[in-house]
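Re: that backbone. Tokens:
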């Protein structure tokens, strides 16, 4: 009998995913032997070279403050002065796909989140992602070649389409697959046990 699968659906630049990270790491650890855990990219914002509108910048800064207040998550607000923010997360998603092929998707996710939220660096920029790839031990030239490869973009688009057909409500989301039935899992930012108990009851 196939082991149940738990899909963790995220975007590397999703601030709520950053807020959920500590709870998710604990839940993932507790479920390691219970289910097959699969990371899937949702693709929050398409490629764009345009500067993020001021209204969107203010909205996201307020979102950061809300997450910090509710969850105690650390944010470096210097990002909004040091960087030219763009509403573009697909490059970070592609970097995660490249890292996945090397067994380093989770490491790349953590590196992108820390660079963005703690170090005030912009993961919408290829040079930022290239530096993170080198730090993780990936081949820099190969990374840059793949980042502009049409096949990688096609792979990302297929994954986004697959995820959009799942019972999700934004990012992050958890979806349990058992006997080809997909079930949404309640995501509790404060307590990993909420999701754990629901998953255990279904597997």
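Recovered sequence:
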């Amino acid at each position: 009998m196939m082991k149940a699968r738990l899909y963790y659906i995220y975007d590397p630049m999703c601030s709520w995913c950053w807020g959920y990270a500590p709870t998710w790491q604990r839940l993932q650890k507790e479920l390691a032997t219970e289910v097959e855990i699969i990371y899937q990219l949702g693709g929050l914002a398409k490629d764009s070279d345009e500067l993020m509108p001021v209204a969107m910048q203010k909205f996201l800064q307020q979102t950061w403050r809300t997450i910090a207040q509710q969850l105690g998550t650390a944010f470096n607000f210097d990002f909004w002065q040091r960087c030219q923010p763009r509403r573009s997360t697909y490059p970070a998603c592609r970097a995660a796909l490249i890292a996945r092929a090397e067994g380093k998707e989770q490491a790349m996710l953590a590196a992108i989140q820390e660079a963005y939220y703690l170090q005030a660096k912009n993961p919408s920029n290829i040079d930022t992602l290239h530096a993170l790839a080198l730090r993780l031990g990936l081949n820099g030239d190969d990374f840059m070649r793949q980042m502009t490869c049409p096949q990688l973009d096609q792979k990302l688009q297929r994954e986004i389409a697959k995820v959009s057909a799942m019972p999700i409500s934004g990012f992050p989301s958890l979806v349990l697959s058992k006997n080809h039935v997909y079930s949404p899992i309640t995501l509790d930012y404060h307590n990993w046990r909420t999701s754990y108990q629901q998953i255990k009851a279904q597997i």
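DSSP finds nine helices and four strands in the chain. The CA atoms of residues 16 and 150 lie 29 Å apart.
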